[in-house]
Design brief:
This is von Willebrand factor type A domain-containing protein. The chain is α/β, with parallel strands linked by helices. Helix content is 45%, strand content 10%. The protein has 14 helices and 10 strands. The strands form 3 sheets. The protein has a 6-stranded mixed β-sheet with strand order 7-6-3-8-9-10. The chain has a two-stranded antiparallel sheet with strand order 1-2. The protein has a two-stranded antiparallel sheet with strand order 4-5. The relative contact order is 0.16.
Length: 496
Amino acid sequence: MKTQPALVRPAPAQPVAPSTTGDGGPRQRGRRVPRLLAVPLALALAGCAAEAGPTQDTAPSAPVSSTPGSGASQDGAAGPGAGTSAASSGGVAPGPAAPQPVETPAGLEADHLVESTFLLASGERSGKDLDAERAAAAVVAAEPGPREWEDAVMAQVQGDLSGPMVDLLGAGEGVAAPEVGELDLPPLHVAVVLDASGSMRESAGGGRTRMEAARQALDGFAAGLPRDATLSVRTYGQGGDASRSGRADSCRSTQRVAEGRARQLDLAGELARVEPTGWTPLARGLEAAGKDLPTAGRSVVYVVTDGLETCGGDPVAAATELSRGPGGPDVHVIGFGLAEGDWQLLEDVAEAGRGEYTSVGTGDELANLLADQRELLEELRWEAGADAAAGVEGQVETLTAGARELATDLRREVDAQEERALAVVDALAAESATDAELLDGLRNDLAQRHDRMRHAVEDAERQAVNRAEVDGIIERRAGRDAAREERDAASEELER
């Protein structure tokens, strides 16, 4: 017979596991290539130069080709990597050859991708009101070589991403060590969902039916719970009868038969009025149990059943829904006199409810199991009190929310930067600044660059969330250890 006395076994939350795409690579995005009006580049820039007059952008003219890779040298021969000069670009000075790196905080750990795409100074034209034609002219005036166009474009449009990325790389830290002090223990509620189908009339040994044995075991269980603990008992399947004609009434039946301070309840008397008669609507009993739980404090649910669902319900789904959310109760299942072949189905219910399944064969085994739970429930409450005193859960939630907000903002900036870069490429194409094949390759390189940047943001976000979760587990354990020490000290004081 499988017996597991320690049903209540709180498990620490696990760090968030990294998520990837199906092939394990970075998420691919559809490229947004904004099309600008094909304003003649030479006319637009000439107009800007005429209106502004001589400026620091003006540079001596030189007879060079406007096609990258075919510029003329001083002796008139074609030279590699030459492009349009400032004068032939309407007086726009050459832009930087590439974005410049920025100083970062000492000890910052960043990989090459982050350093080469985020930790860079803002470009000359990185604002929202981008003059794509003028930026394109500056790119051409820089005379980039065939493999230097991407850097030249980014030197114009690079966004202010270094600060936000540094913030994200350091996010998720700061879960404080708990100070337990005087604990304000949260209220404890125990909800029992009891099978009242016809099979509970069968013998549990010792001259008692299963219902009589359950009634006595639960009465002793309630009497040993903490003084301020509350208890509710709900039965299911007590309506109708076990016949086909009585099935509908039985499958609809569930009733809360007791509720209040656990030590003040007369469970033996309340349950003596319950007559097991019908079918087994286990799922319905679980669904209705949610109405018995208080909105504050810590709750635990125990299901005591001698059979499987016979009314067509889905107890696994019901247990999942009942335990949903961080404050949801654990749902433990006790099989009473079940054949071993039926255990798996009830184990699935317990697993769905984040609880454990245990099988007992006699009324005495049931009473012993429930008696063991009393101490474990008190331990659970002290741990919950330590968590509340330390504020660990709130700290973890705040830090993870902050990391996700940083990542969302950074993704938005990466998207805007990509739009600016592709707008400059469109302006280059509108004036045939270089050959179409090179521009197509440039568009592809810029799209891939920004996809890699978005993937880097996702990695940094996952790492920040993991830092907060792992630190939360460590500090939560520290708080619980301190709570146990305080509880032991209080117990020794009472004994003296």
